[in-house]
Fold this protein.
Amino acid sequence: MSVAEQNLTSRITYTDLYRRWEMNNWSAMEIDFSADRDGWRGLTEIQRKSALWIYSMFFFGEDRVADDLSPYIDAAPTEEQKYFLTTQQVDEARHAVFFHRFFSEVIGAGDDLASTLAFTEQHLGWGYKQVFNRLDRMADELRRDRSLPKFAQAITLYHLIVEASMAQPGQHFIEDFFVREGTMPGFSAGMEHVSRDEQRHIGFGVKVLSELLAESDECKAAVDELMTEVMPWLSSVFIPPNWDREYTRCYGFELEEIAAWGFKAVEMKWKAIGYPMQEMPPGVAPIDFELEPHERAANVIRMSQAGVIGEPGQDPDGSPEIQQLYFDSVSRAVDPSVVNGHGPFTVQWRFSDAAPWHLVVDNGSTRAAAGEARAADVTLEASWKDFIEISKGALAPPKALVQRRMKLRGGPRDLLRFAKLFG
Ligand SMILES: [Fe+2]
Ligand SMILES: [Fe+2]
């Protein structure tokens, strides 16, 4: 972590964060939406469809985070943290009220909170729902277990995943457009307040995690576990309905831009926490950090659109280009220390409906290549589709073996090493 980043987290105190909350208080009830109704009618059809999709994620999200924050207040180890979290809970309720007013007064969707929330559900995608269902379960876990590792996990999911990785990039782009156009003055004014609040919340999460991770390896391990679980969902959060690129283009940006902006922002936050993403276990973020954020984003989106990562039950593309991208990330996801001292270890994949690939792990370096290896320690046979389902966690390996949809060959020790290699 650079000195500047170190200063950033240690300089901000919980008192500062509280003071900023008092200074930046605002009223969701006083936002004037009268000009926004014309602004809404002036949007093109695709802009309105896209807005419904994005704002539904915002409104539903604000409602959930307001509901799920209470156990955080109970579990926070210091009074200062508890006070801040109570201010945050008020903020989240205010954000939900703001979005509800926008939906019912400008869009004309629903009257009370319950009916407007029910209206938003049709617009929520698979990755989004996975993350928010996990946030609900996390709140339950935190009610039963107020330990510091559980608290670190919970803050990671809420402040670093939901707020910093999902909400902030979305806000950034949508706010930009309407500020530029000036056609939705009420919405723009509210969003400016919401983003400022969210920056404060994320600042709090960064500070808490920097303190917890500096003190405890157990907290770090808990964070690793949560990140491994959640990262596969994140790549799907911004997928527009039917992969229709017009959903973002009509607001002047590409999916890759929003993802690249998100990558950069989130990486900076983990650096400030003192735990850069590059130092996380190999399976957490199997990304080539040498690439520019835009290129990384483009690769993740290509794999997602090809169906090899993200939602299960797709027909995955098995073309050479997609296999190359996929196995590049497999080679970064394995833990090479598992085979240390045991010479090169080779895994061979044979697919009934796609080209074979192999992976060689040798003394800390791992490489994947197309084709047959000269000799393999473990050989896996399956269809490309079943293999991808297994890797997404949608088909359990024992079931695949029993149903003979997957065959594994290798000595017992090599099979054990193979299992460990992929966590
Ligand atoms: Fe919020
Ligand atoms: Fe927030």
Remarks:
- Residues 324-421 form a domain with the Nonspecific Lipid-transfer Protein; Chain A fold (CATH 3.30.1050.10).
